[in-house]
Amino acid sequence: MTNPQQVAVLGGGSFGTAIANIAASNGHKTYQWMRNKERAAKVQQARENSEYLPGYKLSDNLTACADLQEAVGSADVVFIAIPSKSFREVTQLLAPILKSGTMVISTTKGIEPSGFTLMSQVLEQELNDARIGVLSGPNFAKEIVAHQQTGSVIASEDEELISCIQELLCSSTFRLYANSDRYGVELGGALKNIYAIVTGLATALGCGHNTIAMLLTRSLAEMGRFAKHLDADPLTFLGLAGVGDLILTCTSDLSRNYRLGMAIAQGQSLQQAEADIGQAVEGVNTLRLVKQKADELGVYMPLASALHGILFEDYSIGDVADKLMGGEQNNDVEYSQKNL
Ligand SMILES: NC(=O)c1ccc[n+]([C@@H]2O[C@H](COP(=O)([O-])OP(=O)(O)OC[C@H]3O[C@@H](n4cnc5c(N)ncnc54)[C@H](O)[C@@H]3O)[C@@H](O)[C@H]2O)c1
Ligand SMILES: O=P(O)(O)OC[C@H](O)CO
Fold first, then answer.
1. Which of 3.40.50.720, 3.40.50.150, 3.40.50.300, 1.10.10.10 is the CATH number of 6-180?
2. Which residues are annotated as a binding site for NADPH?
3. CATH code reported for the domain at 183-326
4. The complex's ipTM?
5. In sequence order, what are the beta bridge partners of 79?
6. What are the pLDDT digits (tens) for 233-270?
7. What is each CA distance from 326 to 20, 51, 110, in whole angstroms?
């Protein structure tokens, strides 16, 4: 199938809107499903998602609706842009109405606590007959709808699915790169959120460019080391869905994870910072799970441990920074195949 007749996007927030609008602008009949009926009607009527992406007109081919059957019943391709904490619940609603052989693509960058499960693994567990992929990369929703040139990654073992999604979404401002390492692409997208919080925090404290460059590079090393312990391929992190997304979210206050780090440095509580941002901040939960997993597997992750200390163990930021810079050097080796 190279030319899908109907596309569905689940999620009425920032990224759901951005992806639905690309598919619709490319001429595909696209349904964007959101759980709130009034909000769906408002988006449909105003041709704008004024709560999440105000000021951007949406394509006429996009239908916003709150009826899952209407959105998904005839869809050939379904994208899911629902925060990880509700991802399984929505997938379970989807399961009984999905056509056999439908392509289902997760765009969610998070991890489920039970079993350290990534979202495409949730899809595997819940959907019997779907073809599964992951879309991930340095992709702020706001810049996508503003038609800034953007690159992303479509990852799947299914080559036909990759070609279909490339054709479906590619435009003069959106380009999709193929990757067969679905797990690595998905893991990179989840892990980078931890380090966006770290650099947001460091930037708000006044750290200079030297410090940010060190943090970014050591974050990548830490991500690679963690991947290797999970038998994933750390080389995948050298692509758009790894280092690309790490650079993006660690250097811009368009990132909600980065903004959360800034708010913590400015003295806000975690709860207050999350409430003020008011949208998905996946890095907080990911940090909890990654710290637990790293401890279990004995993976050296000083930056993730330091952030965990600040957010969940009442450590002072100053003490943590001193400890990071003044600690024993015997674990501090540069990134290489041998040293990961
Ligand atoms: N915003 C971006 O730039 C961006 C880019 C790439 C990937 N992502 C990822 O996409 C995922 C979604 O992010 P977002 O930015 O769209 O978040 P968001 O907070 O902007 O929107 C989330 C949407 O999901 C809906 N939702 C939450 N629980 C639901 C449930 N149980 N049933 C139905 N709908 C529910 C919310 O009502 C909201 O409309 C996250 O994992 C994020 O990391 C976001
Ligand atoms: O706003 P954030 O921090 O969730 O980042 C959004 C995307 O993941 C950027 O690629």
1. 3.40.50.720
2. 14-15, 35, 52, 109, 141, 256, 282
3. 1.10.1040.10
4. 0.99
5. 9, 105
6. 999 999 999 999 999 999 999 999 999 999 999 999 99
7. 48, 45, 32
